[in-house]
Specification:
29% helix, 2 helices, alpha+beta, 2 domains
Amino acid sequence: MLKASFLESTPVEGFLYGEKGILKIHRNFHHTKEISVFQHNILKEKFDIDYIGNGYYHEIVEVINCLKEGKIESEKMPHSFSLVLIQTLDRIREKIGMT
């Protein structure tokens, strides 16, 4: 489940629910510095993570690696996925009247 809004502030957290517990990826999930593990709604363990860079770090590293190897496409993010992603975003923009 994903909740996003232009009208309200959301927590910007992520949760992974499994049979044995829950992982909470703290704010801001896309460059978190903390992950918590819960079992039966009880905090079992917390991990501190060193965040590298100021955004797009991993994407830049992948582009550099591809260029060094003479590749014009990454296996991690092929052109076909980029096309599907932009088509999906276009449909969302149409639905909310942003086009």
